Amino acid sequence: MGAVGELSFIKNLRERSPVRNRRGLQLGIGDDCALLRVRPGWQIAVTTDLFLEGRHFRRESHRPESAGHRCLARGLSDLAAMGGATPIAAFLSLALPRTMLHSVPDQRWIAGFLQGFEALSRRFGAPLAGGDTGEAPGPEFSADVVLVGQIRPGRVLLRSGAKPGDGVWITGALGGAAAELEAMLARAETGRGPSRISGPQSFPEPRLAVGAALARLPGVATACLDVSDGLSTDLGHLCEESGVAVRIEAASLPLHPLAARLGPERALALALHGGEDYELLFTAGAEARLPKRLASVPLTRIGTVLKRERRRPILTVADATGRNQTLTPGGWEHLR
Amino acid sequence: MGAVGELSFIKNLRERSPVRNRRGLQLGIGDDCALLRVRPGWQIAVTTDLFLEGRHFRRESHRPESAGHRCLARGLSDLAAMGGATPIAAFLSLALPRTMLHSVPDQRWIAGFLQGFEALSRRFGAPLAGGDTGEAPGPEFSADVVLVGQIRPGRVLLRSGAKPGDGVWITGALGGAAAELEAMLARAETGRGPSRISGPQSFPEPRLAVGAALARLPGVATACLDVSDGLSTDLGHLCEESGVAVRIEAASLPLHPLAARLGPERALALALHGGEDYELLFTAGAEARLPKRLASVPLTRIGTVLKRERRRPILTVADATGRNQTLTPGGWEHLR
After folding, report:
1. Residue A54 near chain B (CB below 8 Å)
2. Do both B92 and B177 map to the same domain?
3. Helix, strand or coil for residue B143?
4. C-alpha B301: how far from chain center
5. Per-residue pLDDT reduced to its tens digit, B28-54
6. Smallest CA–CA distance from A140 into chain B, residue
7. Does pTM surpass 0.90?
């Protein structure tokens, strides 16, 4: 990357980012490290997520503000899933193709990306505190986002605590992000369809308040993670970490309106495998009394945790007639 | 990336990484976030560094163990430059070309990369606590490394404290990493030359002990950063952050033997602009008495901090006859 291009880009980022804030950022962009402070006795939660062109977004179909929003939302959702850890700071590493720094539309795209990132960052108190930039080896844009948060040790929700007999719960609705993506791609190809949907694919809402509220309900949630790769894949992670099996009731899955309008079969497939909904998937003791909504977000019981048995598949889905079918993970997989 | 390929790769990483250690890692790979603990009252230092094929390493010339070592060393060196922050955990995001997961030599390369990473991580107590993996959009491998450390607030060394009259100092020697790279590239092209040099290009040594020892000397160091982009570029960063100018004495620059043997002119160019030496560049009050070595590493005074004046260039280098020449940053630039 040209020195001038990069320097002006960084100056721009730096001028827009706070050097320090009251919550925990002591020193932001500009030195060898950022410096943060955590509340005495609290734990630090750290998560990193790649955001790769062609895999996590498409420059030709995602608006830049949406891409920036989604990049940060991935990390905020991980903080939510630990029990609503309070964000302290975000870090953004960008590998930029050389061509993007010399093209005016591409520079506008980058500016839009940063606007989307910063709007969400301000809303959740996760100031941009550092990162890195480099010249991408190929023509694609890629990013890595790091979120640092803090959480009271007693409030941590892990993936590993689900027990046989627990209910399986989900926040919000499923399948909306995948349905919106289908519509976006169809429009990019055919030029037809609604030009701007601002749904859960474009602007997913990290469930930080729900995660925190859930962690404050004493003894209710036994395990929690976010649905980023797809319900079937993320249920697999839950079963793996907790050493259990899960049966889902297909009829109980809360379908997002964008998915529901595609018909029952397609909607079910998107709800099970679509991914990127960034809802919280959690388990709660059979006796736990859960409100209908938490932090204004609906909660739905979608299944039951079972004992893992050799001859039974780990994941099953029961259809309306009560017949069980094996549920095969159909989403994405990546390292946490 | 194929689910099976990625899963086995992650399992492998996870089995080799500690779930927790005594120093501060409470929860490692496998959940939505890693959980860390910091000593009461200490600050958290966070740095992220991209490690891109073709820019920070070349698969055809760097041995995989060296690439893994260098990837982590970039971040450890940033912790060193803050005043020797103690590492708590490292995070590694890898964007892997699909082809690399289906080729046996490429899988061996990745295994070697991780071995190099882990050997350095063990040595400095920076356990791999998480990260992400994804399919790279192109044929190149790229990584982003995050280091989290802790530091006592009174021991922080910033880039912004240099004052006119201060001496400018450097640890170790300069130009070795660039000289070794030249030899490696020449060998890759011609097949001639020494087959394995294990010098500062292949295995740079992060100066954590020197950074910590320097920060413990009361009131000595006024500013500090690491030489990653090249002395001339990093001096520019120092001057920018401290609002000062600097004059370097060419004759005082400690030349690495690999650079020195290329003759005085080339050696000087590599020492000034080569980069990747990961030595610490710091300033100290004119009256400060510095030992010849700190944590067994030689210290050399290489110049003087000057007041910034409109008509004078910010960076100058004085040759053996005392004549000043403008020093133009010739290294790399990237966001910290």
Report:
1. yes
2. no
3. strand
4. 20
5. 998 999 999 999 999 999 999 999 998
6. B137
7. yes
